[in-house]
Amino acid sequence: MDNLDANVKLFNEYHALLVTLGKNICKTRPQCGQCPLNTDICRHLHV
Predict the structure, then answer these.
(1) Which residues contact 6 (CB under 8 A, 6 or more apart)?
(2) How far is CA 27 from CA 9, 22, 39, in A?
(3) What 3-state DSSP class applies to 1?
(4) 8 backbone dihedrals φ, ψ, rounded to 5°
(5) Is the pLDDT reported for residue 35 higher than 60?
């Protein structure tokens, strides 16, 4: 949140994108190869 402008529309869009990512990629069996955030911030990759 500290890296985003204080804009409600922007926060809502960001939230919606994260929900979509979780619903479509981060499932019981994560689809890490398809993840656009396949970086050091993903806890699944580093457990």
Answers:
(1) none
(2) 27, 7, 17
(3) coil
(4) -60, -45
(5) yes
For 12-46, give one letter per residue: b (16+ CB within 10 A) or e.
eeeeeeeeeeeeebbeeeeeeeebeeeeeeeeeee
- Between 17-21, 28-32, 39-43, the lowest mean confidence (pLDDT) is in 39-43
Cα(10)–Cα(6) distance, rounded to whole angstroms?
Answer: 8
- State the Cα–Cα distance between residues 9 and 46, nearest whole angstrom: 32
Q: Which residue has the tokens 């806890």?
A: 43
For the entire predicted model, the pTM comes to 0.66
Q: Which secondary-structure segment (H or E) carries 17?
A: helix 8-24
